[in-house]
Amino acid sequence: MKLAIGVAAVTLGLGLSFVSPVMAVETEKEPILANGQSLDELRKHTPGISTDELKSELIKNPTTILLDVRTLEEVKLSGGIIRATRSLSIPRGWLEFRIGEAVADKNAPIVVYDDDNQRSLLAVLTLKRLGYVNVRNYTDGFPAWKKAGLAIEQPDLALNSFLYALPEKVADGVWSAIGQTAPSTYENSGHNNNLSFVVTGDGVVVFNGGGSWLLAKSLHDEIKKVTDQPVKYLVLENGQGHAALGASYWQDLGVPVIAHEDAAMEIEERGDAIVTSAKRRLRDKFYGTILVHPDETFSEKKIIELGTTRIELQTLGPAHSPGDIMLWMPEKKLVISGDMAFHQRMLPVFEDTDTAGWIETWEAFEGLGAKIVIPGHGSPTNMAEVTKYTRDYLVFMRDKIKDIIDNDGGLNDAYKIDQTAYEHLDTYEFLSLRNAARIFQAMEFE
Ligand SMILES: [Zn+2]
């Protein structure tokens, strides 16, 4: 009890000392608030975690929540936030108001940080008072993390839109809103894949509905700023939620939705599960979203000719997930690859991902001769880059796992594969071990 009272006084005092120099002078009357001892005292009693410990914690326990309590301006100026599977940005002043909705589980492991190890200490205290029992303070602070060259990421790049980032012009008439290279979260509104559009001179073709009705509408708002031409088609890269869930927005406007027949099957079979998990993540941001089915499907190729623009929608073979298609523009040598190609983040191997097939299909993909690649995830680039992080990663993992199987090794050996050559990729902490396990389990039966 005694401790709790002391703590409350410290919180109050430090709160005041941040307000203005005038207030700071006033606090000098109270030794406990002014002599600088109180923060040190608090530090001694607050469970802390160092840079090295935090680094291994994020790999061992990717569900640990990283809570940044700096203001958004500070985050922007400092260059980002610590990259983690579960990261939260709640400025210190808003903590009591927003933490309850963001973290319902009082036992969840939380690590709090700021720039200078001051507000984070107080935030730990606040969280404890609110009943969170597994809270630690990152003692080195964000600058130390950044200086050590460890993974950071940009928070929302488009604060006035549900999109994570606004569309950027990739080539004449081709635009893409690049999603966060991270899992889908409430914070990124589910915009974690690329939502692209092609302005043809006789209408617009949109590639991907996005993970919700609001994302589809947000993209449309941006399309209207680029052109007053109407949207003629919506194309889905596959049957995943972040491709298909926004389709209801476009169908309501009378825009036909095109997908591969396997993607349509995926939506049919897994649609309810997709809706349930997206709803859980996006909560109020799931507003208006309903699952709809494509209006038109194809099995190999579909040509769209609008004005003088030729667009080829095609599947080249098995890749990341059922019904993966790409949008190929032969004149521009530009491909919107869908989940065939990944950039900047580690690719996820799903239970139904055919890694051997994907490597084979890659040959046909390279055969297109694309000069510009808008990948499924990550910023626009060229073939060499996506080859490095998609095909070459698959080949690397399959070679290692083949060795393990040939030497009668087991799943444990697969977990031990040294994947550090890919450590700099986003979602590495979250996916590297899972990918090793999935590929091992699949290859055991090949
Ligand atoms: Zn994807």
Fold and architecture overview:
It is globular and about 70 Å long. A 7-stranded mixed beta sheet has the order 8-9-10-11-12-13-14. A 5-stranded parallel beta sheet has the order 1-6-5-2-4. With 446 residues, it is of the alpha/beta class. Helix 1 packs antiparallel against helix 2 and helix 15 (383-406) packs across helix 17. It folds into 3 domains: 1-45, no CATH class; 46-153, Oxidized Rhodanese, domain 1 (3-Layer(aba) Sandwich); 168-443, 4-Layer Sandwich (Metallo-beta-lactamase, Chain A). It has helices at residues 2-19, 21-27, 31-34, 37-45, 51-60, 72-78, 95-102, 119-129, 142-147, 213-226, 241-244, 247-252, 261-282, 355-367, 383-406, 411-415, 428-443; strands at residues 48-49, 65-68, 81-82, 86-89, 110-113, 135-138, 152-153, 168-171, 174-177, 195-199, 204-207, 231-235, 257-260, 296-298, 301-306, 309-314, 326-329, 334-342, 372-377. Zinc ion (ZN) is lined by residues 193, 240, 339, 376-377.
Please outline the helices and strands.
Elements: H1 2-19, H2 21-27, H3 31-34, H4 37-45, E1 48-49, H5 51-60, E2 65-68, H6 72-78, E3 81-82, E4 86-89, H7 95-102, E5 110-113, H8 119-129, E6 135-138, H9 142-147, E7 152-153, E8 168-171, E9 174-177, E10 195-199, E11 204-207, H10 213-226, E12 231-235, H11 241-244, H12 247-252, E13 257-260, H13 261-282, E14 296-298, E15 301-306, E16 309-314, E17 326-329, E18 334-342, H14 355-367, E19 372-377, H15 383-406, H16 411-415, H17 428-443
Helix pairs in contact: 1-2, 14-15, 15-17
Bound molecules: zinc ion (ZN).
